[in-house]
Write a structure and sequence with these properties.
mainly alpha
Length: 203
């Protein structure tokens, strides 16, 4: 496997364990966008004005690098779960750091679905149907990395409206206020963003 060949997480893990530093870097970079989404969902809305989620991601990746030899899993699911545990620990430390001086608001932490949890945890209720909706796809365990990569290809406005509506679960009125737009404009933007996400996933 060279640095240009596509590889699965399992392949990258195996190569990294063999001491291939280049594949180890690829492994961590492949998960950066995914961790950014999880960080956005883990950090409460009131705290996001004070802390940059990218700093939380960087800290998590640094700790994962340092503790890589202690990771015993073999699969993508085990690897992502391990990274999430590190990130949640760092996010909890961050929240505790600010909690002493800030009044705690209602929690809006939204984690990606955990194994065995079939409930829909992101976004507004979706109509029932045979095909998974974009919001349901957003929490599909076996597509986490693909979804993160698809979101990364959207425009900044589309990424932001999905993050606010689906990850932070804000009502449209608050999304509109945060984005400096009217509620109808934000609703139309969100609908277009979900459509773009679905197209990106189908590709």
């Amino acid at each position: 496997m060279n640095d240009l060949e596509p590889a699965t997480v399992e392949q990258l893990l195996a190569r990294a364990r063999e001491g291939d530093e280049q594949q180890r870097e690829r492994l961590f970079e492949a998960c950066r966008s995914y961790l950014a989404l999880v960080a956005r969902a883990q950090v409460e809305s009131w705290l996001q004005a004070k802390a940059d989620a990218s700093d939380l991601v960087q800290q998590t990746l640094l700790e994962a690098h340092r503790g890589f030899d202690r990771f015993e899993g073999r699969t993508e699911a085990e690897w992502l779960a391990w990274l999430r545990r590190i990130l949640r620990h760092n996010a909890a430390d961050l929240v505790r750091r600010y909690r002493g001086t800030e009044k705690r608001q209602a929690r809006r932490e939204v984690a990606f679905r955990q194994p065995g949890d079939d409930s829909q945890v992101l976004g507004a209720p979706e109509p029932a149907g045979r095909e998974p909706t974009p919001s349901q796809q957003l929490v599909a365990r076996d597509r986490d990395l693909q979804i993160a990569a698809a979101l990364d290809r959207l425009s900044p406005d589309h990424r932001e409206v999905i993050a606010l509506r689906n990850l932070e679960r804000l009502p449209f009125d608050e999304v509109a206020e945060r984005m400096g737009r009217s509620r109808p404009a934000v609703q139309m933007l969100w609908a277009r963003a979900i459509k773009k996400l679905q197209e990106a996933l189908e590709q």
